[in-house]
Amino acid sequence: MGSILGKNSALTWVVHISVLLLVLLWTIPTVGLLISSVRDKDQLVATGWWTSFSTVERNLIKRSAPANEQFKEDGKFILKGNVFADQSGTVTAFGWRSQQPDAYVPGNTAQMRKGKTLKIEADGSYLLISPTAFSSKRGARLFVTVFEKPIFTLDNYSEVLFAEGLGKSFINTMTVTIPATVIPILIAAFAAYALAWMEFPGRAIFLAVVVGLLVVPLQMSLIPLLKLYTTIGIGKSYIGIWLAHTGFGLPLAIYLLRNYIAGLPREIIESARVDGANDFQIFVKIILPLSFPALASFAIFQFLWVWNDLLIATVFLGNNEEQLVMTGRLREMLGSRGGNWEILTASAFVSILVPLMVFFTLQKYLVRGLLSGSVKGG
Amino acid sequence: MEQVLLALFTMVVAVLGCIGYFWGSNGLLALVYPAKGKNGAANIQKSAAIRPWLFMGPAILLLSVYLIYPVFNSIYLSLHGSSGEKFVGFANYTWLINDEKFIESFINNMMWLVIVPAASTFFGLLAAALTDRISWGNIAKSLIFMPMAISFIGASIIWKFVYDFRGEDVEQIGILNAILVHFGAEPQAWIVMPGWNSVFLMIILIWIQTGFAMVILSAALRGIPEETLEAATLDGANPLQIFLQIKVPQIWGSVAVVWTTITILVLKVFDIVMAMTNGQWGSQVLANYMFDWMFRGHDFGRSATIALVIMLLVLPVMVWNVRNLRNEN
Questions:
Q1: Rounded Cα gap, residues B139 and B175, in angstroms
Q2: Residues of A in contact with B153 (CB under 8 A)
Q3: Is the minimum CB–CB distance between B156 and chain A shorter than 8 Å?
Q4: What's the pLDDT at B329?
């Protein structure tokens, strides 16, 4: 296909640029999230993430040292210090009234009320001089316009993991996901083998039912199962959600695995039968090992699906510390921490990290599963 | 940590349980109908007749409880009152067709149904066609495919940040508004604009699903026999003509698969709407509305009725899938 286009270099450029545009469109939102999550939380809300590598101009209100740090020199009271805790920026303007926060250039002296003067240097050091003693315990207000160097930090992550309870939710999500991924595989594999290679009445109907169930909306099942769980006493528990995910994942699992197993060469199975092996032995010794790619495909689907699920977790698990999964926690944060982008971005990134890792390392199986699930069959 | 150990323990127990069941039931079968001895041949036949049911047993049980029984129970519930006890006939249905919010949800769902599959398939096809022609196509594909791995709620946060809106006098930190402001326009509060906000929510799903469409369609494009393309080239067709007139018609089957798969997904869309607007500002959809009546309204009857409407909308695809399967066999 490349050869058709290879001669036409202008068109090739158009293709390159179009793909680049598509890729940018598709990655920029995620990149913005990632960069924002490691920015200082005050800078994050001050400027867009795309400017995060340049210095930030901000208007800040700082406080001078409190009155008890004053000392007397030549009959005047003096307070001095630096508006930056860590020398991280440059002052470009300052003032002492909120109406004119940028009235003075650094290095000049501002005349304040009652004969006080204020001088702030570009490096942030300030000098307050007064004929009478300072009395404010909190210090005087200093208005400064500063150029701040970009600050990158992992503080947001430690905050969401430990203070916001995302760490606990991470463990809850793991607790849901591991069994809910593994349990359906075995059950589905046996059923898939039966549907592919065993003769029994009603086989075609079962297959049709499985294909039909592939698209049944989960919404149908929520209320009936919630009632059922309450009746038989499972209530909101991990066992309930494991079984629910198993039940909901089975149609796809059976369908994918059947397609794969049905495609295995007939001779292998026939010759094993001739050798006297029964179906159980054939399944365990031949089919299972050969089906590894299909099993892996489904495992990835189910893992991503369960990890990312919000609906089933909201319905079948409680809202408490012991059971709230990451997606549920994110939803709660969107409500309670709607404006705290440092919390939201870091939390979102923690929750998508594992799926992304799985995605990039096992993409091959994911693609294979998608293709066998949709191209071959319905 | 204890909990993860519990999960691992459960996993091991479940796996051992499964193995135990299949192995045990098979052993039992061999014991009851031994393959050797005077009835050997008959016994082998008998156990061959029983074994499929042992293999299928757990799957049949789980599918019945989790997917088949709920369909019938939902029909039952839809004919009953809020707690599911008092028979109310078709009251829930008449309520439904007169309910403004339901009609809004239905119309929105229809809009989602038209726009999302169409846009995802279009971008998917575009990406598939273009990435197949360049050396770094696989990397590009991988990056476009990546949102598939992100949860709807995670994607919602990502896009909420893109759509972020602040007053005119403050610097915008949402990239969309920043671009607008850069070109001199006024910033907009995207997700509270009635009518348009749904489109901004749809973009999130399109962003997620394009990768899926691309993967399927790219495989389909590569499956087109070289000869037809060569013949067209010899006839002097340009690349665009080849693509539109030779390639696209040959992959209609895959386009249909992509379209229906995304259609099903769209009908069930819930997380995105819940996270972004929770159905406010005219953006409600059926799945979230159903959830609303279930958890906030505590009305199982109405909720089940809405679920049945979703089921009804899915039904044509289900029939089509099953019919395809029959044709295939």
A1: 25
A2: 308, 310, 327, 330-331, 334, 351
A3: yes
A4: 66
